[in-house]
Amino acid sequence: MLTGRTEQKVRVADVFPELIEDLAPEDQRLVRQYGVAHLEVLSPGLWHPRRELQPEPGHLGLLVLEGLLTRDVVLGETLATELVGRGDVLRPADHDGEEAPVPFDIVWHVLEPTRIAILDRDFARVIGHWPEAMEVLMRGAVSRAQSLAVTLAVSHLRRVDTRLLIIMWYLADRWGKVTPRGVSVPLRLTHQTLGRLVGAQRPSVTTALKQLAEEGRLTREPDQTWMLHGEAPETLERLREERSTGGGHSDLD
């Protein structure tokens, strides 16, 4: 996969206005003018983050400006996936899985054309004048941890169809668009990727997706994105339904 070099620069607040939404107009102008970062442009495929993207103390990390990636944690023959998108803050150079008590590896895939701002020491020195802007970046880092906790909780549910339905509504909350036909989730996620998100094998995911389609809850669009129909489920109600019927496909076999 070709990776854009860092000669390109970007005024971060121009493409990520959330950074300055709580600032006074004059402060917004200053951040727009001086909050400049190097830009990394990624095309779909495998991504091998270069160490020089995070080369020195004081580096805040990488801010995803647009696009979609997966971060796969590979532990032996087991693989778990995290979705990463706009507003997330990454620090891939901090990976120490090879020295962990049980070694693991990290594999990155770019699913859609992606642009990343490199928040180096110079950018950190500038943005540090505005705690409100720093808070936005901190929020981007914390939200990843919160998303992972939700994904972990979903993966513990017994039925695969329940896991898929809940994770899709969770993704819709971030990426979804309301349409006359339902809530569009414009993410081209394969059955295999969905399985890695919810801790299920691909055949089980295929069976569960067929069941959800028959129920009129979730369908795949011709462009390979997804459409949620009806209202978001009440999680506890869905779980009560599981316990009372004992139905649905489990991936515990």
Word description of this protein:
The protein has 253 residues and is α+β, with helices and mostly antiparallel strands. It is 37% helix and 26% strand. It has helices at residues 12-15, 25-34, 121-127, 131-155, 160-175, 191-198, 202-214, 235-245, and strands at residues 9-11, 36-42, 45-47, 61-75, 78-85, 89-90, 105-119, 177-179, 182-185, 218-220, 226-228. Strands 1, 2, 3, 4, 5, 6 and 7 form a seven-stranded antiparallel sheet that branches. The protein has a four-stranded antiparallel sheet with strand order 8-9-11-10. Strand 4 and strand 5 form a beta hairpin. Helix 5 (160-175) crosses helix 7 and helix 6 packs across helix 7 (202-214). The radius of gyration is 20 Å and the shape is globular. Mean pLDDT is 87; it is low at 1-5.
For the largest beta-sheet, the strand count, sense and barrel status come to: 7 strands, antiparallel
Q: How much of the residues is beta strand, in percent?
A: 25-35%
Q: State the helix count.
A: 8
Q: What is the N-to-C succession of helices and strands?
A: EHHEEEEEEHHHEEHHEEH
Structural class per helix/strand content? alpha+beta
Question: How would the blueprint of this fold be written?
Answer:
Blueprint: E1 9-11, H1 12-15, H2 25-34, E2 36-42, E3 45-47, E4 61-75, E5 78-85, E6 89-90, E7 105-119, H3 121-127, H4 131-155, H5 160-175, E8 177-179, E9 182-185, H6 191-198, H7 202-214, E10 218-220, E11 226-228, H8 235-245
Antiparallel strand pairs: 1-2, 2-7, 3-7, 4-5, 4-6, 4-7, 8-9, 9-11, 10-11
List keywords for this structure.
disordered N terminus, alpha+beta, 253 residues, 8 helices, 4-stranded antiparallel β-sheet, 11 strands, 7-stranded antiparallel β-sheet
